[in-house]
Each structure stands twice: as structure tokens, then as C-alpha cells.
Write a structure and sequence with these properties.
232 residues, alpha/beta, Rossmann fold, Alpha-Beta Plaits, 6-stranded mixed beta sheet, 4-stranded mixed beta sheet, 6 helices, 14 strands, 26% strand, binds ribulose-5-phosphate, NagB/RpiA_transferase-like, ribose-5-phosphate isomerase activity, Ribose-5P_isomerase, EC 5.3.1.6
């Protein structure tokens, strides 16, 4: 049985998702995010498409692609679309003030970043638990790495000062992303961490494909609240 707390979180996600999906206009090329909030966005987009909304979409994960196709959302790819008008995605953490994000706990950060970078606007839909004052205060930072020599990449990340652990599946194997990479979870220092400099350092580390810091990319954040929605 679900608790009142998880019911409230689900309702908040749905409220944010419905508002976010309503921002899509006829004729737009849209990026569809990953995770449970994005799944609610995709459901709502599917409902609007069934009612006649005409869009083309690109998904940020195999799971979102599958859901979108089931809902008969017209899907495209970067061979046919070079620019997206709007991407709607979730986040693990949103830093108040800067709107800097941690993303990737659903394992989709690389495609999410590629899609967001190809997008004119990035709209993030979250429930209130995702708002933080300091990045990394609730979640670790997912970093996508090449499987070959990942042990050495983890060591380099630790040498940079990040406590780092390879993400494992429940059956004890390394978690593999849609891009066939591994994920390393890095603990961010909670005092004096410079997200821009830290992101550059991570990006410059051999073996790292991409990290889950999304800095200066967010256009708007919509937060589902019990009394309605709040837009930052
Ligand atoms: C996946 C992500 C998701 O957007 C993030 O994990 C939030 O997911 P949820 O909406 O389920 O809380 O970055 O890689």
C-alpha cells in the first residue's frame, strides 16, 4: 500500500508534468526526458497527441522512446531534426537560485544532455523534494564512464577528491547505460565546491564520457506543490 507521503509526491509530479506538457505548441519539435516525472509528461503528451496536437519528438532513453511509441507520439531522430524547440525533463536536484541541476540517477544523463543541448529551451518538471540549497546534499553526482579501464577512471576521480563508487545492479553487475557505458557515483564536497570548475575537471578526466551537472542550461523549473504549481 502506498503511503500518504508517496501519494503526495506522485500528485506533485503529475501536477508539474501536466503543466509542463501544456507548454508544447502545435508544430514543435520536442525532447522527451527520462525518469518517473518525464513518464508522466510523456503520458500527457500522448493524450494531447491523441486529441490532435502535431509534434515531432526525440526521446532521451530507450525507456522513454518505448513509452512514447506505445502512446503513438510521432518520434524522430537527429538525422531528421537538428534543432528542438523545447525539451521537458526531470532532475534529481535543482539548486535554488542558480537552477543548476544534478541529473542521471535514471542512468540517462548522456542522452539527456545531448537532447538538452540541441534544444532552444529546457523545462524541468519536479516535485518539491528536488529543491536543494547545495548541489549534492541529497544525491551523488552520476558520471558516465567508458567500461574499458573504468578502474583507472574511478581512481582518477578519487584522486580529484570525489568519493567515487561504480553503480551496480541488484544482481551484482555494473549498471550499463543505453550508450553501453558505466556510471560512477561521485560524492560532491559540501563546502566550497565550485560546480563550474568541478564540471570542467570531471569533463577533462580521461575515461569520463559525461557528467550529470547541468549548468546554465535550464530555462524554467516547474514545481508541483499541494496548492498548485510554482515556476522558477
Ligand atoms: C534520469 C534523470 C531523471 O530526470 C531524474 O533521475 C529524475 O527522475 P524522477 O522524475 O523519477 O525523480 O536525470 O537520468
Amino acid at each position: 500500500m502506498s503511503s500518504p507521503e508517496s501519494n503526495a509526491t506522485d500528485a506533485a509530479k503529475r501536477r508539474a508534468a501536466v503543466w509542463a506538457a501544456a507548454q508544447i505548441e502545435d508544430g514543435m519539435a520536442v525532447g522527451l526526458g527520462s525518469g518517473s516525472t518525464s513518464a508522466l509528461v510523456i503520458e500527457e503528451v500522448g493524450r494531447r497527441v491523441a486529441e490532435g496536437l502535431r509534434i515531432k519528438a526525440i526521446a532521451t532513453s530507450e525507456a522513454s522512446q518505448k513509452l512514447a511509441l506505445e502512446l503513438k507520439i510521432p518520434m524522430s531522430d537527429f538525422a531528421h531534426l537538428t534543432h528542438l524547440d523545447l525539451t521537458i525533463d526531470g532532475a534529481d536536484e535543482v539548486q535554488e537560485g542558480t537552477l543548476y541541476l544534478i541529473k542521471g540517477h535514471g542512468g540517462a544523463l548522456l542522452r539527456e544532455k545531448i537532447v538538452a543541448m540541441a534544444s532552444g529551451r529546457l523545462l524541468i518538471a519536479v516535485d518539491p523534494r528536488k529543491l536543494v540549497k547545495t548541489l549534492g546534499s541529497v544525491f551523488t553526482l552520476p558520471v558516465e564512464v567508458v567500461p574499458f579501464g573504468f578502474e583507472t577512471t574511478v581512481k582518477r576521480l578519487r584522486d580529484l577528491g570525489f568519493e567515487s563508487e561504480l553503480r551496480m545492479t541488484d544482481d551484482g553487475k555494473p549498471y550499463v547505460t543505453d550508450g553501453q557505458h558505466y556510471i560512477v557515483h561521485c560524492k560532491l564536497p559540501q563546502v566550497g565546491f565550485d560546480a563550474v570548475a568541478g564540471g570542467e575537471e570531471l569533463k577533462g578526466t580521461v575515461g569520463v564520457v559525461e557528467h550529470g551537472l547541468f549548468l546554465g542550461m535550464t530555462s524554467k523549473v516547474v514545481i508541483g506543490r499541494p496548492e498548485g504549481i510554482e515556476v522558477l
